[in-house]
């Protein structure tokens, strides 16, 4: 290949893969718009798009096989796999910038189990005690270490079938593995996000990476005593005043609560103080009326 041919090879590669790149660009835009707007509706639209597009249409998920490829630097040829590189770079970049956004709304399997959770009756769910939940969250790191160790010794990539169920979107595999997947999905009816929270080696890998997260979720000083978000987090990622970056999938649930002036004690305290000050004022005017003061105090603290 000489210097005159190179641009046309790349132009050809982009032209051939333009539909794939366009679809992924649209999907990535949906992910990011829903995330930045903290919109629950857009999040569920993203989850459905993930199952339909990444799961059923493309069968493309980040897999432990990609981790093997990274460790041995055995990666696809760039010009033939532009879509895959955009997908992988998007996953790594969003994880480093924001945390496990991939697990929260991109991974088709995680999206499917979150949608299951949404439609199944809440009364079926078992609440895992916190101490068991914390200990169980380390299982996935053990699986990651074991499967990477096994691969480095044997170079057998087919081990992925036993530790991740992503092959389900290709509708292949043996009856025994389909039965195991059925058991896992039934268990997920009772324990929400079971595989993602406790078993997934890819989630563990991204969890380790997310310790580098640049833009973390803010906490109010009141978070150290208030436990509303801790109870609301379906991923066991809030422990007292802390958010455990490796467990958090940036689902937005706690962030929506932070902004809720009717539920979050941070705002309730500010509003209460403003009301007391307003009542104490000697000669309230239209601008200094309790309602006016409350609104101004709320806005000045935002
Ligand atoms: S934990 Fe695993 S299965 Fe769950 S969303 Fe993340 S990568 Fe997907
Ligand atoms: S509720 Fe908050 S801490 Fe828990 S997973 Fe969602 S964004 Fe992360």
SSE layout:
Elements (H helix, E strand, L loop, with lengths): L5 H11 L1 H20 L2 H18 L6 H8 L10 H17 L2 H6 L1 H12 L10 H7 L2 H16 L5 H4 L11 H16 L3 H6 L1 H9 L18 H5 L5 E2 L2 E2 L9 H6 L6 H16 L9 H12 L1
Antiparallel strand pairs: 1-2
Helix pairs in contact: 2-3, 2-5, 3-7, 9-13, 16-17
The structure holds iron/sulfur cluster (2 copies).
Describe the structure.
The chain has a two-stranded antiparallel sheet with strand order 1-2. It has two domains: 6-254, no CATH class; 265-301, no CATH class. It is mostly helical and 302 residues long. Helix content is 63%, strand content 1%. The protein is globular. The N and C termini lie far apart (58 Å). Helix 3 (40-57) crosses helix 7 (108-119). One iron/sulfur cluster is lined by residues 217, 233, 235, 237-238, 243, 248-255. The site of one iron/sulfur cluster (SF4) has 14 residues, from helix 15.
Task: Jot down its keywords.
302 residues, mainly alpha, two-stranded antiparallel sheet, 17 helices, 2 strands
Distinct small-molecule ligands in the complex: iron/sulfur cluster
Radius of gyration: 23 Å
The largest sheet has its strands arranged as 1-2
In which range does the helix fraction lie?
55-70%
Helix-strand topology string? HHHHHHHHHHHHHHEEHHH
* Domain module count: 2
The count of β-strands is 2
What is the helix tally?
17
Strand content: under 5%
Shape: globular
Low-pLDDT residue spans: 288-302
In whole angstroms, the N-to-C terminal distance is 58 Å
Q: Can you summarize the main beta sheet?
A: 2 strands, antiparallel
**What's the rounded overall pLDDT mean?**
89
